[in-house]
């Protein structure tokens, strides 16, 4: 249940706090006073899209808090699923800044708008002023019927089988492509495989060849460097130029002789001796490398030819080597599928027959549930509409079975006859605006005991209705609110008279700014407001008496 709504800097509302009660809550006020702003605020707190236009002029941001008490178990489960702690109460917060950006919080913890929508889906529903017009669109009638039927499990069973059937059908359609298209695809796949196989690609080969090419291309410089290093270490073969290793050897002999006379030089002599042997070993290694750098004159040509082959195959397919190898495997698998398509087609046809029979069976179960539910809904709505001063009304269901689709096999449309002796016809051709409002209310009334939502909001459900029918709407809303919460925005005194809790939304101008205030009315306040709704600006003793009588009769 929506217990409390706090608003700051939302449109003309600078600051307001509203306390709602269980039962029937009515919001009244002049046109333009800000009643729709409350609806916009509630929509915002539920995670729906908003705009910066909602922020009061001159304010940096708009803030909305909503407290829900005794939340349903389904909402608690969703809270835990989304990673929030579940309790009996829930606090939602929404902030919108002047740039149109904002943030959401669930029990003080950050949340995305999408998560808030998932959590709040089980809290309340809002029936807007124009929702009744949706009744005139036959495309929406099946959804309304399913909503009453509460057939989620049956629909889920059917939809699962339908999806399986569609998946197999897509495979079969792909295999049943025209023979010419099939042959062209086989030829294209074969050409791809042959081209990739002809290149004899190997993972990592291109990198290895590039490295080898770099070595060969710069071999002259490499050899010169190795030769110079070897000459510096080992000297020349004629002995005319002493190398670093020989010089180190001479240095070792001299230092070792000195170390025999001064033991403190022994450690230095050992270090110098180690340098000598390292130099000799390095000179030998360099000599071995010089012998190894013998290149086949044709090796560079072979490498460049191979790299050109790899470059061309990469350019042809627009892929790297690893991607080409994966492409080859995919093409081979697809080719195998085409080549064995005859057997596969037979298998898929058998699967389709089995799956179609199962989907058809599930669709028929869904159809029977819908037809049975319409009969029950028809009885409830007929009783509700007769109570709402629409006697003699007849509902009918135009139903036909068609091909299986995502929603089943049914096409439905609600038909209505509002006068005895007339055949039922489409709602768009028969029902007036006031009649549509009452039909929608009758549907919501029939749905009330089946819908787990604890709060329903009606935004001017009584549009186009007056007199006895308006009073009956108020009475039905009051009855619907037993055990739950109903919020209703209304301009009709006959509806407002039935309120368990009446709120006045009032607009005032102070200085050059507009301010909207929300007041909870006591009995005297209700009488005054209803009298003004009855007689306009000039409240008379008669209108006050009429207002008091309306309230007393509603009790």
TrEMBL record:
Entries under InterPro entries matching the protein: DNA_recomb/repair_RecN, P-loop_NTPase, RecF/RecN/SMC_N
GO CC aspect terms: bacterial nucleoid
Domain (RecF/RecN/SMC N-terminal): residue spans on this chain: 2-507
GO biological process, one term: DNA repair
Molecular function terms, GO-annotated: ATP binding
CDD domains the record matches: ABC_RecN
Keywords from the UniProt entry: ATP-binding, Coiled coil, DNA damage, DNA repair, Nucleotide-binding
Coiled coil: 172-199, 321-365
Gene3D superfamilies membership: P-loop containing nucleotide triphosphate hydrolases (3.40.50.300)
NCBIfam families linked: recN (TIGR00634)
Family: Belongs to the RecN family.
Function noted in UniProt: May be involved in recombinational repair of damaged DNA.
Full protein name: DNA repair protein RecN
Taxonomic source organism: Candidatus Gemmiger excrementavium
């Amino acid at each position: 249940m929506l217990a409390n709504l706090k608003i700051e800097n939302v449109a003309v509302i600078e600051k307001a706090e509203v306390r709602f009660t269980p039962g029937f809550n009515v919001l009244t006020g002049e046109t333009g006073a800000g009643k729709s702003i409350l609806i916009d605020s509630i929509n915002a707190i539920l995670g729906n899209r908003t705009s910066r236009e909602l922020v009061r002029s001159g304010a940096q941001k708009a803030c909305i808090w909503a407290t829900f008490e005794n939340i349903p178990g389904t909402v608690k489960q969703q809270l835990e699923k989304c990673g929030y702690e579940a309790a009996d109460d829930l606090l939602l917060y929404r902030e919108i800044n002047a740039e149109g950006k904002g943030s959401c919080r669930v029990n003080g913890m950050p949340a995305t708008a999408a998560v808030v929508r998932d959590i709040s889906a089980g809290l309340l529903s809002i029936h807007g002023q124009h929702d009744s017009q949706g009744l005139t669109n036959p495309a929406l009638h099946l959804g309304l019927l399913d909503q009453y039927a509460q057939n989620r499990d049956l629909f889920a069973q059917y939809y699962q089988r339908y999806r399986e059937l569609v998946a197999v059908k897509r495979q079969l359609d792909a295999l049943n492509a025209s023979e010419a298209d099939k042959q062209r695809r086989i030829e294209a796949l074969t050409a791809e495989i042959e081209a990739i196989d002809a290149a004899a690609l190997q993972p990592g080969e291109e990198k290895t060849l590039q490295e080898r090419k770099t070595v060969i291309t710069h071999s002259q410089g490499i050899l010169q460097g190795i030769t110079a290093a070897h000459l510096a270490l080992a000297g020349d073969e004629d002995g005319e130029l002493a190398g670093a290793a020989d010089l180190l050897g001479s240095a070792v002999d001299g230092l070792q002789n000195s170390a025999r006379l001064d033991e403190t030089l022994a450690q230095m002599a050992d270090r110098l001796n180690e340098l000598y042997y390292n130099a000799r070993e390095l000179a030998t290694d360099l000599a071995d490398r010089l012998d190894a750098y013998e290149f086949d004159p044709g090796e560079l040509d072979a490498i460049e030819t191979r790299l050109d082959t790899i470059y061309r195959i990469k350019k042809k397919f627009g892929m790297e080597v690893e991607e080409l190898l994966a492409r080859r495997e995919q093409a081979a698998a697809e080719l195998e599928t085409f080549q064995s398509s005859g057997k596969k087609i037979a298998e898929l046809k058998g699967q389709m027959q089995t799956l179609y029979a199962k989907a058809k069976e599930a669709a028929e179960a869904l159809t029977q549930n819908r037809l049975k539910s319409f009969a029950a809904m028809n009885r409830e709505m007929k009783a509700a509409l007769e109570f709402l001063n629409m006697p003699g009304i007849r509902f009918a269901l135009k139903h036909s079975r068609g091909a299986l689709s995502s929603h089943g096999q049914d096409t439905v449309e609600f038909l209505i006859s509002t006068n005895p002796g007339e055949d039922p016809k489409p709602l768009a051709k028969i029902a007036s605006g006031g009649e549509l409002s009452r039909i929608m209310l009758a549907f919501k009334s029939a749905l009330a005991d089946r819908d787990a939502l604890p709060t329903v909001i009606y935004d001017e459900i009584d549009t186009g209705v007056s007199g006895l029918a308006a009073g009956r709407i108020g009475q039905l809303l009051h009855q619907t609110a037993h055990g739950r919460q109903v919020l209703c925005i209304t301009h009709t005194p006959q509806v407002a008279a039935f309120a368990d809790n009446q709120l006045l939304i009032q607009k005032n101008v102070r200085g050059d700014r507009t301010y909207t205030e929300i007041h909870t009315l006591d009995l005297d306040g209700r009488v005054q407001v209803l009298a003004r709704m009855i007689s306009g600006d000039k409240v008379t003793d008669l209108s006050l008496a009429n207002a008091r009588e309306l309230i007393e009769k509603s009790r």
